Amino acid sequence: MDSIQKGSSALQVDLHPPLDRRDALVESERCFFCHDAPCLTACPTDIDIPLFIRQIRSDNPQSAARTIFSENILGGMCARVCPTETLCEQACVRQDEGAPVRIGLLQRYATDHFMESGEHPVERSEDTGKKVAVVGAGPAGMSCAHRLASHGHQVTLFDAKEKPGGLNEFGIASYKSPQNFAQREVEFVLDIGGIYLQLGVRVGADISIQKLSDEYQAVFFAAGLGDVNALSIPGIELKGVRDAVAFIEELRQCEDYEKMKVGERVAVIGGGMTAIDAAVQAKMLGAREVTVLYRGGQEKMKASVFEQELAQKHGVKLSFGVSPEAVVGDSGKVMGIQIKRDMDGKSEREELVVDSLLVAIGQRLHSELGEQLKQQGLDLSAGKINIDSDGRCVGSHFWAGGDCANGGEDLTVTAVQQGKVAAESIHAALTAQES
Ligand SMILES: Cc1cc2nc3c(=O)[nH]c(=O)nc-3n(C[C@H](O)[C@H](O)[C@H](O)COP(=O)(O)OP(=O)(O)OC[C@H]3O[C@@H](n4cnc5c(N)ncnc54)[C@H](O)[C@@H]3O)c2cc1C
Ligand code: SF4
Questions:
Q1: Class of domain 131-225+365-434
Q2: CB of 220 within 8 A of CB of 134?
Q3: Pocket residues for ligand 2 (CB within 6 Å)?
Q4: What is the per-residue pLDDT for 1?
Q5: Domain with CATH 1.10.1060.10 in the chain
Q6: Torsion angle of C-alpha atoms 294, 311, 91, 60, degrees rounded to 10
Q7: Fewer CB within 10 Å, N- or C-terminus of the chain?
C-alpha cells in the first residue's frame, strides 16, 4: 500500500492491486516449497499453497487455480479479503525476514486468470435426485451448495435478500472487492449447475423450517448474523446515530457516492473489522475527522494490525480505553458523545463533538430465527448454533455453518470451510441412506 487514494473514488480502487504475470513469476520464485509447509496448516480451507505456487512458477496459473478451487470455491474472494497477515502469510517461514511470500496476491493472480477464462473448475457428478435446502446465500451457503452440487445433489439456495452473496455483497468494504466481484463470483459458483436460487424468501417467515425439513432430504443453515448488538446508553435514538453494518450495506449498494451523506465529524464505536471498515469508508466519503472509539487496549482489538494501520494511513484516529456513556444532542440530532477514558488506572470524562455516530459492537443471530431453531430442538449458546466438527447441529438432524454457528472465526474463509465440511457430512448421510 504505497500511496493512499483519497476521496470517494478511492472506494472503487483495489486495496491490493493484482500482480501481473512477471511479478507473479518473480514472487513465486521466493517460495521455498517447504515440506510440511506451515502456510498450508494455517489456511482454514487447507489449500495446498506450495503446490499452487509451484504451478504459478511453472507459468501454469490455470492449474494453480484448480488447486485452489478444489478446496475453496470462493478462493477469488478469499484472495481479496482474507486477513493473510494473521493466517498463511504470518505462518510463512519467510516472515522471519519480515517479507513473507505474498500468498494472497498469488492466489488472486491464479483465480482471476481462471475466472477470466470462462471455464468451471469442477465437473458435476451424475444427478442423484436428492434435494438439499441451504438457508443463506453467503460464503458458507454458497460453498456448501457448490460442494453438494459437485456430488450430483440438487440444491435450493434460499436467501431473504433479493441479491445473493451475503456479506460478500453487503458487508465487505468496497475497496477490498471492487468491480462487482461478489456477483461475478456468485455466477461463477452457480456455473456448476444443479443449484437453484430462491431470492427474497425469508426462511422462518415466508417458508417454515418444518416445510423445508419435510420437502428436502437435508437442510443446512448458513443464515449469518442478522441482528446487531444494541448499545444501551442515553441518547442512542438521536438522529445521526446509525448501526455501522447498515451504513456499510447502504454504501455497498449505492450507485452514486456523492449522494451518500456521512457527516463532518464521525465517531465509530467498536474494535473489529466492521468498525475499521466503516471508519475508513466514512473518511473516503469525505468526513473531515473520523475517530474509532474502542474500550479495550490496542492489543485487544479484533481488527488486525494491518487493518489498524490501514485506518491510520487514511487519517482515521484510533482511541483506546474509551467507553461511551451518553450521546448528546440538540433538536433530536446528535451533537456529541460523552466518553470515559481509562488510562494508567485513572478515569477521565470528556465530550467529543460529532455529527455522526456509527455503532459496530457486534452482531448476533436473528432473534426470530433463533427462537424457531430452538423450537426445532437446536442447541444454541452465545447466540449461535452449536455444531459438531462435521457441521451437524447438536441435538437435531440439521446442519449449520458460517457466522450463525459456533466454531468459526467470523471470517469469509472459515465460513467457506464450514460450508464445505458440512456438505461432505450431508453427502455421506445421503449416500448412507441409499445403502
Ligand atoms: C462490515 C463487515 C466487514 C467484513 N470484512 C471482512 C473481511 O474483510 N474479511 C473477512 O474474512 N471477513 C470479513 N467479514 C466477515 C465475513 O463477511 C463473514 O464472516 C462471512 O460473510 C460469513 O458468511 P456467512 O455465509 O456465514 O454469512 P453471511 O455472509 O452473513 O450470509 C448470510 C446470508 O443468509 C441470509 N439470511 C439470513 N437469514 C435468513 C433467513 N431467515 N432466510 C433466508 N436467508 C437468510 C442473509 O440475507 C445472507 O445473505 C466482515 C463482516 C462485516 C459485517
Ligand atoms: S511457508 Fe512460505 S516459503 Fe514455505 S511453502 Fe509456504 S509460502 Fe512457500
A1: alpha beta
A2: yes
A3: 31-34, 37-39, 49-50, 53, 92-94, 101, 103
A4: 44
A5: 8-117
A6: 150
A7: C
Amino acid at 365: L
CATH number of 8-117: 1.10.1060.10
pLDDT of residue 184: 97
**The predicted structure's pLDDT at residue 2:** 42
Measured distance CA(367)–CA(358) in Å, rounded: 22
Split the chain (435 residues) into runs of 10 and give each run's mean pLDDT.
58 82 98 96 97 98 98 98 95 95 98 97 97 98 98 98 97 89 97 98 94 96 93 96 95 87 95 95 95 94 91 96 96 96 89 97 91 91 93 91 93 98 97 79
Tell whether ligand 1 has an atom less than 6 A from the beta carbon of residue 92. Answer: no
Residues of the chain with CATH 3.50.50.60: 131-225+365-434, 228-362
Closest ligand 1 atom number to CA of residue 140:
25
Ligand 1, atom 9, lies closest to the CA of 81
Report the separation in Å between the CA atom of 411 and the middle of ligand 1, taken as the mean of its atom positions: 9
- Cα atoms in the Cβ-side hemisphere of radius 13 Å centred on 386: 10
